[in-house]
Design goal:
Elements (H helix, E strand, L loop, with lengths): L2 H14 L6 H14 L4 H16 L23 E12 L6 E8 L4 E7 L12 E12 L2 E6 L4 E5 L18 E13 L6 E9 L2 E8 L12 E12 L2 E5 L4 E5 L9 E11 L4 E6 L13 E2 L3 E2 L3 E12 L4 E6 L1 H8 L3 H9 L5 H12 L3 E9 L2 E9 L4 H11 L5
Parallel strand pairs: 3-5, 9-11, 18-20
Antiparallel strand pairs: 1-2, 1-4, 2-3, 4-5, 4-6, 7-8, 7-10, 8-9, 10-11, 10-12, 13-17, 13-19, 14-17, 15-16, 17-18, 19-20
Helix pairs in contact: 1-2, 1-3, 2-3, 5-6
Length: 409
């Protein structure tokens, strides 16, 4: 194999589009893929060519016939394409009309696929390589999908290649499939019986919420730990992304990540305090920490005779134009209300109203007060890191009344 010939072919194609090609960088990328990661020369050539073309904004052509083989990161919706890749995830069939669903990946990227039951295909195996010839690309919820139908030829390949997924910064996520390196920042209460875990992940560029559904082999992430997550599904709703980890391969790592603060500041009146605020009880089962009901019932571990007390405030901040959900944890609640966890516990245990008395006293102290809160905004909820009261300024009231034509008495 002569890498210089591949370098020349790539540079000629780039120069033909009116751009200068750096042969040394091309060779460096090729050698890394071929010699370090074991990528086949043809696949490495296509990967490097499309990466450079993307950097220059070059269109290499999207018209693809049934026999045109393409890299996964170069396919477009409504194309008929042929791809070769490795099955990196294989899920349960959601419908009798679907034989297989999963993720197929090559050196350039990964894409979800669906194989219809009417298609005549061999038994699909995870971690094996396949050639999908004449498959159709479509789009669902902003993400590209590969449809394998009765006209698609599926062939298993004798390839033992190594795939090195490209790590995508959280700020650059798009709907589809992605691999990320992140730190587990926060775990949230689950909102569904089938949900194993939900929470917040972060890297140097931002944060994203994640969910893992109950399924065989699924593991829980530990707060504060760093993970490399390969081939997670990236969903998008109202312009916000989230990760579904059920398809992913998750590798715990040593070290730390300086997570971008992603700080948002919001100030306004606390116009509502939701039920479930004040003094709460949490499940003591290792790794759970979910909020218990009044009858000490955990949605996962059922009745719990033992529990830990905690404080939180869930409510709405309103600035007169916008309203935002807020979630304040123990430290912020103690600072705002002046009521410590120990004081709240003693009050609840020695008062006929119990935990309701704590809720009522906290509501009296802060409901309707003007606050300035800072934290991370996730799915239109502000996870508050710090909060302070805004003191009343008489001159501000006079100014507002003058603007509305009123009078100050």
């Amino acid at each position: 194999m002569d890498i210089s010939q591949i370098v020349d072919r790539i540079s000629q194609k780039i120069e033909a589009k009116g751009h200068a090609a750096d042969k040394s960088k091309i060779e460096q990328k090729l050698r890394r893929l071929i010699e370090e990661f074991g990528v086949q020369p043809a696949d490495a050539e296509r990967t490097v060519l499309y990466d450079i073309a993307r950097d220059f904004g070059i269109q290499l052509g999207n018209a693809a016939g049934p026999g045109d083989q393409k890299l996964i990161n170069s396919v477009s919706t409504e194309e008929w394409v042929t791809i070769e890749g490795k099955i990196v995830a294989l899920g349960h069939s959601p419908s009798p009309s679907i034989a297989y669903s999963g993720i197929i990946a090559d050196a350039s990227g990964a894409i979800r696929f669906v194989i219809w039951s009417k298609a005549s295909v061999p038994v699909i195996k995870k971690d094996a390589w396949y050639r999908f010839e004449s498959a159709v690309v479509d789009e669902f919820k902003g993400a590209l999908n590969l449809k394998v139908h009765s006209g698609t030829t599926v062939k298993e390949l004798e390839i033992d290649g190594v795939l090195i997924p490209v790590i995508t910064p959280l700020a650059e996520l798009t709907a589809g499939v992605a691999s990320v390196r992140v730190k587990m920042i926060q775990e949230w209460d689950v909102t569904h019986d089938r949900m194993l875990q939900s929470g917040l992940l972060g890297d140097e560029t931002g944060t994203v919420k994640f969910v893992t559904w109950k399924d065989e082999g699924m593991v829980r992430l530990e707060p504060g730990m760093v993970y490399t997550i390969y081939y997670a599904l990236v969903d998008e709703f109202n312009g916000r992304h989230s990760l579904n980890l059920n398809t992913a391969n998750i590798l715990a790592e040593e070290g730390d990540i300086a997570v971008s603060s992603g700080a948002s500041t919001f100030q306004g009146a606390l116009v509502h305090i939701a039920p479930g605020s004040g003094l709460i009880k949490r499940c003591t089962v290792e790794g759970c920490n979910r909020v218990l009901s009044r009858q000490n019932y955990c949605p996962v571990h059922e009745m719990q005779p033992k529990f830990n007390y905690d404080l939180r405030i869930k409510g709405w901040l309103d600035d007169g134009t916008h309203t935002i959900d807020t979630l304040m944890q123990r430290e912020v609640v103690e600072s705002l209300t002046g009521m410590t966890l120990e004081e709240s516990r003693e009050l609840a245990e020695n008062n006929p109203l119990g935990m309701d008395e704590v809720f009522l006293r906290m509501r009296e102290k802060i409901l309707g007060r003007y606050l300035r809160c800072e934290g991370r905004e996730i799915d239109r909820r502000l996870i508050v890191n710090s909060c302070e009261r805004i003191h009343f300024e008489p001159t501000m009231l006079a100014e507002l009344l003058n603007r509305t034509g009123g009078e100050v008495s």
